[in-house]
Amino acid sequence: MSKPIEDYGFIGNMLSGALVAQDGSMDWLCLPRFDSDACFAALLGTREHGYWRISPAGGPQRSSRRYLPHAPILETTFETRDGTAVLVDFMPLSDDPEKVDVIRLVRGVSGRVTMRMEMALRFGYGKTIPWVRRRDYGIHAVAGPDAVELVTRVPLHGEDMCTIAEFDVREGDVVPFTLAYHPLHREPHFIGDAQMRLEHTETWWRDWVRICRLSEFESPVWKDAVERSLVTLKALSYQPSGAIVAAPTTSLPEEIGGMRNWDYRYCWIRDAALTLYAFMNAGYFDEAGAFREWLLRAAAGAPNQMQIMYGVDGERRLTEIELTWLPGYENSVPVRIGNGACDQIQIDVFGELMDALHTARKSQLGPNQDAWRFQQTLLSRLEGLWREPDEGIWEVRGGRKHFVHSKVMAWVAFDRAIKAVEQSGFSGPVETWRALREEIHREVLVRGYDKGRNTFVQHYDGTALDASLLLIAEVGFLPPEDYRFRGTVEAIERELLEDGLVLRYRVEETEDGLTGEEGTFLVCSFWLADAYTMIGRTGDAEALFERLLSLRNDLGLLAEEYHPRLRRQLGNFPQAFSHIGLINTAYNLRRVSGPAQQRADLGEPPRADDASRNRAAGAPRDEPSLD
């Protein structure tokens, strides 16, 4: 029986990450990178597919856990009849991306506790049993190109294709276990003192958090939530390149037993661009600069070959395949690695990218001529592409459509380019861009707006709603007081809310090419809170934000979705998009010029239908024509 997603904690070191359950079992670990093959894959199968558990031999009477302050270091306390022991899990920082360690420290707190360690290494996502040999420091295990050393002073023995140890800890005892990865062609590296490495890791993270602008949050709950989300995003970054993965896991389902299971261990331009906002508003300009440089490297080349996502080093080929030997989380199949959406056309990415780079240019990062030349090549492609249908922000697999959000973000792309010329002194065909901006704006108001219901719709000539429409005011396409935006917010409240949380769309009304249902998308609920803030419904925004905070697990982590009826989190975990939403909404609620307002301020006030822009309600006047 699979454990609930909320049962897991996440540890990471900006190279890779692991999920550790409350019972002390590490059920997911990919080495040496986030997108490498897993050597512990019990999360998507059974213990036969690899795990590493350290816990009291007879089971605890009680257990509790917490993160150490300011760091992705997990501490689990086990209380037994004979005493208390603590398990500390962390991944030390590494200067060598091919040599990655996982350290687990067992500390005796009181009495005497008999602990049991069980490790089943299974390379290749649970398929390959390695060749294990004893060493004076522990064991050496190898399979194909991969090798690991398990370093410990505790005696080890084999049992049913697993490595086992039993040992006692008393008050003051510290027993370390280090799993050290290296490619087979390289020599094992010197491990070093585990306690000293813990102290070094704690110090690094504590110094990093000191940069964060948290003083404006009076509520300790809000302050802790924002800090934990920032630490999680930082741990999800790939330090050598500056990329940020959407999540450290693959194929955790959006519907239990369903097929909506995807690999999120890659860098989406959209997600990373929004992460840039979260980092910059918290004062982390080094991270924002690193992403800008990664983007220029990853997307370099012909503009018609820009992808919506890349591997952590900028890889373009992310071939999607199914792992048939894994039964899936709670029998949710298929288990997929790779992501076929990398070949999709998603026009909104152009706007997110231009918006993020414009914000970076106006911030402490300053201008970048190479970035501007890159943006001009993208705009030359967008001049024709914006008129085409696409797969949209939600990566539908049921055929391309003229998604309204995609058109709005195409407007954003040209708007930010115009601002670059007007405000930053860059050169470009600004009159052409102004004409395109006006044309897109006029078309969206005619084809993407339902006058009878006073709401924008998911795609041209359709009736379904879409949570991405909540971003129309945030990006500056319309002012928040516009009756059409307010009407859209109200329509989404009527039609997309489930138990007060927001669906991205109604699956029965959207041809997304998949069967089954899904939960509410957490980032969409944060968008609704942002929309409330922008239209002056601050009380509603704060109430929704508090509700969303209550959905986090005991460690402050969020997955992609929440199912109100099942009352559980769903999807890949922890999810960067959800934590981005948490951070930005918190700043929106505590700043007049938070991230949402900041994005709107960057936009050019719409020229079409100016007479109606400032009316908060009422029937629309004559709409513009496409002729």
TrEMBL record:
PANTHER family: GLUCAN 1,4-ALPHA-GLUCOSIDASE (PTHR31616:SF0), TREHALASE (PTHR31616)
InterPro entries per record: 6-hairpin_glycosidase_sf (IPR008928), 6hp_glycosidase-like_sf (IPR012341), GH15-like (IPR011613), Trehalase-like_N (IPR045582)
Cofactor(s) annotated in UniProt: phosphate
Annotated SUPFAM superfamilies: Six-hairpin glycosidases
UniProt catalytic activity: alpha,alpha-trehalose + H2O = alpha-D-glucose + beta-D-glucose
Keywords: Carbohydrate metabolism, Glycosidase, Hydrolase
Trehalase-like N-terminal domain mapped to chain residues: 2-150
Protein name per Swiss-Prot or TrEMBL: Trehalase
Family: Belongs to the glycosyl hydrolase 15 family.
Pathway: Glycan degradation; trehalose degradation; D-glucose from alpha,alpha-trehalose: step 1/1
GO molecular function ontology, one term from the record: alpha,alpha-trehalase activity
Pfam family, one: Glyco_hydro_15
Keyword Hydrolase assigned: yes
Record region (Disordered): 595-627
Record GO biological process: trehalose catabolic process
EC number: 3.2.1.28
Composition-biased stretches (Basic and acidic residues): 601-613
GH15-like domain span: 223-586
Highest taxon of the lineage: Bacteria
Transmembrane segment boundaries: none
Enzyme class (EC, first level): hydrolase
